[in-house]
Amino acid sequence: MPEAPLICSETASRVSSVLHRDAKQFGKKHMFDGSEETCWSSDQGSSQWVTLEFPQTVQVSRLQLQFQGGFACRLCTLEGCRKGEELVKILDFYPDDVHALQSFPVQGATLDRLRITFARSTDFFGRIVVYHLSVLGEKL
Asked: Which GO cellular component terms, listed alphabetically, does the Swiss-Prot or TrEMBL entry include (predicted)?
């Protein structure tokens, strides 16, 4: 079966922080709105994260991320779990510090919830800026 976008209007999302608590301008919704003009911008901190809870079980095959150059992440960790379970590490991946859309394959991740942790920001203050986040795979 071909890859399909897994994030939908029923997918619940949470983020570690929002720059100046200004969700209207820098909130999490901007990662999923398809606009090249808007973004999620985290506040300062050593580790930022995004959590997604899907309305049904999914099998993830690929992540796509677009950072703002200078506010990217050198080390990201993907964790996931089924309903009622604890998050477990699936993989580490290493994005480039560029503004281009980057794609990362994921093998055998069947889950209801996932978390992407941005462990090492390229910004001195630990801020992360994400213009686009997409999770691709199959709904089960």
From this structure: nucleus
Please name the amino acid found at residue 86: E
Phi first, then psi, for residue 28 (nearest 5°) are -60, -30
Per-residue pLDDT of 53-66, as tens digits, reads: 999 999 999 999 99
Residue range of the domain that includes 114: 4-139
| Number of domains the chain contains | 1
List alpha helices for the chain, DSSP H.
Answer: 23-26
Burial code (b: 16+ CB inside 10 Å, e: under 16) for 73-108 equals beebbbbbbeeeeebeebeebebeeebeebeeebee
Query: Dmax over Cα atoms in the chain, in whole Å?
Result: 42
Tens of pLDDT, residues 7-54: 999 999 999 999 999 999 999 999 999 899 999 999 998 789 999 999
Q: What is the dihedral of CA 128, 38, 14, 93, to 10 degrees?
A: -40
pTM above 0.85, yes or no: yes
